[in-house]
Amino acid sequence: MEPDILDLASFLPYRLYQLADTVSREFSRIYKERHGLTRPEWRTLSGLGQRGMMTATELGEQSAMHKTKVSRAVAELERRRWLTRTPDEKDRRVEHLALTKAGVAAYREMVPLAKAFERELLGRFSAEERAAIVTGIAALEGALEEKG
User: What is the pTM of this model?
Assistant: First the structure.
């Protein structure tokens, strides 16, 4: 292969992106079928379900979503009455987002489905392969944290 040609099929960043996208699309079928959620809406719901109250900026950072995707997801979950916005007392430009009872109920319904998806996905591998996946991901995360 020529040195000035990049073979994407063997380029690690591209392979990781493709893999993450494939897994995300496979999981998205569950929440789309169950609640008609988009990926940004699911990420917003799950972020608030896990952490409680957050700002849109915090949601974007946690989920690696652009602010416009966060904004649309927040608007849709608010339209469904699954989240509320509370203006910050000190800075009116900031809103604190939290799930309503209906949002919490939807989140709690999805948690066992998400865990079952993960179990099923990991169940496709041997114990040694699962350990290698966990170790490899942790090593990549650690190496990237050191750089950052």
Answer: 0.86
Neighbours of 146 (CB within 10 A): 7
Read off the amino acid at residue 64.
A
Closest CA to 74 of 100, 101, 50, 105: 100
Amino acid at 94: V
Residues 83 and 87: their CA atoms lie apart, in Å, by: 13
Cα–Cα distance measured from residue 108 to residue 100, given in angstroms and rounded to the nearest whole number:
12
* Per-residue b or e along 16-36, where b marks 16 or more CB atoms closer than 10 Å to that residue's CB: eeeeeeeeeeebeebbeeeee
Cβ burial of 47 (10 Å; 0-12, 13-18, 19+) is: buried
* Cβ atoms of 97 and 54 closer than 8 Å: yes
Residue 147's pLDDT band (cuts 50, 70, 90)? confident
Q: Is the pLDDT of residue 88 over 90?
A: no
Cα-Cα-Cα-Cα dihedral sign, residues 65, 118, 120, 142: positive
